[in-house]
Please model this.
Amino acid sequence: DEGERNELVATLAQEQRNVGTTTVSGGWSVLANWRIWVLFVTYICIGAQFLSMVLWLPQIVRHLQNLRPFEIGLITAIPYLISVVLMVYVGRHSDRTGKRSPYVIAGLLIGALGCAASAYFTASPVLSLVVLIVGISGINPLVGPFWSFATGFLRGRAAAVGIAILSCGGSIGGFLATFLLGIFRERFGSFEMGLYFMAGIAIVGAVLMWLVARNREAALLGQEQGAAAE
Model:
């Protein structure tokens, strides 16, 4: 109805004001925007965490605990069941506050801590498994806020090109990390080194996300100060 249309128009106008002049709209101009390429590497790190854990988690659980396939399946479902709840909560809270990057950074750091702690506590299989579940549960909910942040300054053709570039980064990260975890497993006979490696990747992603977010916030603040001065 008309009231809903007016509310939607007002919301879109406010979102456009929040974006400011940091918007990228040209299909070619997005290729020259450094934020896209930093986010590309960031999403490589996110994809590495997400896809490698999806594929290797059953083997990691089997390495930590000598369980039957059915029991392994039940355990590997736990972090994703937790993620279902966290995705809804994180998405709502992110929309309510208008902040995206803190959730992405926090998720990557939780994932890094979970992987590193799981490798460190392998002498205690139950504890190692618990912290790994916590780490995976922290990684999954960050995907929504990441895409909201990444597409927040992309418009028109730039959105199509930027989304394609970032999606490619996630696929590359997932392939490389899955492949490298297998190499670590074969060379060292366990997953400890691979988990430390994944923790390092997550930390790199968190740092890159912080850099992009800090630069964008500084740009928006400069626009607001300029508008106030005028």
The chain has eight helices and no strands. The first helix runs from residue 2 to 19. Helices lie at 2-19, 34-64, 69-97, 101-120, 125-139, 143-150, 157-188, 192-229.
